[in-house]
Amino acid sequence: MGTRVALFATCLTDTFFPDTARAVVRLLERLGCDVDFPAAQTCCGQMHYNTGYRAHAVKLAKRHAKAFDGYDAVVAPSGSCAGMVREVYPDLHRRTESVARRTYELSEFLVDVLGVTDVGAYFPHRVTYHPTCHSLRMLGVGEKPLELLRHVRGLDLVELSGADSCCGFGGTFALKNAETSTAMLADKMTHVLETRAQVVTAGDNSCLMHIGGGLSRLKTGVRSLHLAEILASTEEEPWAATP
Amino acid sequence: MGRNPVTWLGSPTFPNAARDALSDVQLRGNLAHATTTIRTKRAAAVAELPDWQRLRESGQAIKDEVLSNLDSYLERLEAAVTARGGIVHWARDAAEANEIVLRLVKEAGASEVVKVKSMATAEIGLNEALEEGGVSAIETDLAELIVQLGDDRPSHILVPAIHRNRSEIRDIFRSRMSGVEDLSDTPAELAEAARAHLRRKFLSAKVAISGANFAVADTGSVVVVESEGNGRMCLTLPETLITVMGIEKLVPTWSDLEVFLQLLPRSSTAERMNPYTSVWTGVTPGDGPRKFHLVLLDNGRTQTLADRVGRQALRCIRCSACLNVCPVYERTGGQAYGSVYPGPIGAILTPQLGAGTDDPQTAALLKSLPFASSLCGACYEVCPVRIDIPSVLVHLRGKAVEGTHTPESVAMAAASWVMQSPARFRLAQRAASVLRLISRRGKVKRLPWPGSKWTDSRDLPAPAAETFSAWWRRTRG
């Protein structure tokens, strides 16, 4: 038996992007991990915390810590949800310190814990990578996702200009300051289109939902896709576009 | 009237002001160009120093030491300034500070004063107060002059006219200066016009007014850091010098200054060393002003200091690095923040300095400011004194929604209740799947308010036919 890993799917991915979570399971099992999905998980409380509802966030943090008790590692396909647990939880309640220490964003877990950069993936498409703000600045994942992408066979990686600029999502910011958020999105989409990539990828489905939502509205034909789905794709079982 | 006029009275909330600013094509072009340039230069200047992170930590530590013993450092400063022939005044708020300065100017028999660029005097609206008292104040910093002559408001801490390009500046100069009908928009000609205009004022002014970047508690020395030399003209030529300084601008000793004189220029103008650093200690017979007044300004700083999380905003050295990297500021410009402190630092400083206002419109603006951020964290990364701006923003959001009963607070409470139980969450997921009925090819194109805030510009993916947790239960459970 390999490392006992709990998948922290995140409420958004569970509801809107089940393919991403399935890809994480497939990828981690391929790399020898024993993956479990604790059924008690719901939401980490990030939306409440970031919008100013700290008391609700504390409640959700405590129950999140309980849901993931007893696993060697907790892996999330999200820099911002992993960042919430690791960087914010310890300030909310001391009972969350253990889960905070054991929580990883997917690319960190692959590179730092499993020690792999070549996950045996195959993805014959032109791809650009958007480093999401929380993975970049809160967790400091740095080059890890790019390292993983560089080892994917068939993948043509194109650099995104202005990559480290926020896409404008920002949780409730996208609603409370919708016009400013959209202005930020417009510039991000311009940069994505300049790369002539077929796929824009990132480590967070929230940011991808924003960028992809804009690209889809403008009928650009550019697809947003989570990093996990690219890494899970192999020659035997290649990624297939679902509408 | 609000107790602390930190904001411009009558300013709309941030989202409303931003909406107007975003539609100004010229403004967005000017800002994108200017912030991108200065951002790249700063990154290069900072990369030259191998000990940058340790310098930031030192800057933070020195400021924290001052803030936690502010009372004794202020008394030390007062004693040192007084011993060297300066006169110290204490101002609780903007009104008191303006009253003191107006009285001092009148006592000096002046009806015109020259000014060194200063955030503290802009914060308290000193120019307007002097005007009402019959004294005209002339801004001598080039960008401040552009703002003043254009009857405009500043939009940046360091470069208050950053929202203007050179052809707009030429038009302002042509309409407000004499003898410049043929002025072109080349930077050299514009600078020369401003130079000729200001030189006359420097030579005739009896009183100068400045702010202060730093003051050394041990020696009573006051420091002004600037790039043009116009500040130094003001600080040395007139007979009387009046300095208005926020009480948080102290450093304990001379050797502490060396940290900030490295941090500030690289962060603000991307220069290795600041061009004009003026330092004076009280008065020196036969050299410079004969009278020196130091007005120590509170104006909401003490109440900010009382907040354990929010007080770190008082470490700010007004470098503007956070503005230049902020994706929100880059799109909306500074005026949307409704105060002389725009950008990320404004979003945490203005609501704290202005807290307790009794003007409802100002209160609404102050509450909207902490939400003017996507929490991307770029500001924290560049801040030379390590102000954790995202955390303070979140803290102030908490204060803004505390005790409110709004559709949002009800929705948040409901979401929290749902998420307390996996069973309720599963039900909510099933309920959300009704969105599939109004979706086309997996995309929701249009939702009623507040969902329209999203779908006005973005498609929303329809919830999956089978959630991941349902799939897991079915296949692995």
TrEMBL record, chain A:
An MF annotation (GO) of this entry: oxidoreductase activity
Gene Ontology, cellular component aspect: cytosol
Pfam family, one: CCG
Top-rank taxon: Bacteria
InterPro entries, alphabetized: Cys_rich_dom
Residue ranges of domain Cysteine-rich in the record: 5-85, 127-211
PANTHER family: LACTATE UTILIZATION PROTEIN A (PTHR30296:SF0), UNCHARACTERIZED PROTEIN YKGE (PTHR30296)
Protein name: L-lactate dehydrogenase complex protein LldE
From TrEMBL, chain B:
Keywords: 4Fe-4S, Electron transport, Iron, Iron-sulfur, Metal-binding, Repeat, Transport
Record-linked SUPFAM superfamilies: 4Fe-4S ferredoxins (SSF54862), NagB/RpiA/CoA transferase-like (SSF100950)
GO terms under biological process: lactate metabolic process
Domain of life from the UniProt record: Bacteria
Residues of the 4Fe-4S ferredoxin-type domain: 307-336
A family per Pfam: LUD_dom
Positions in coiled-coil regions: none
A GO MF term: 4 iron, 4 sulfur cluster binding
Name under which the protein is recorded: L-lactate dehydrogenase complex protein LldF
Protein source organism: Actinophytocola algeriensis
Upper taxonomic lineage: Bacteria, Bacillati, Actinomycetota, Actinomycetes, Pseudonocardiales
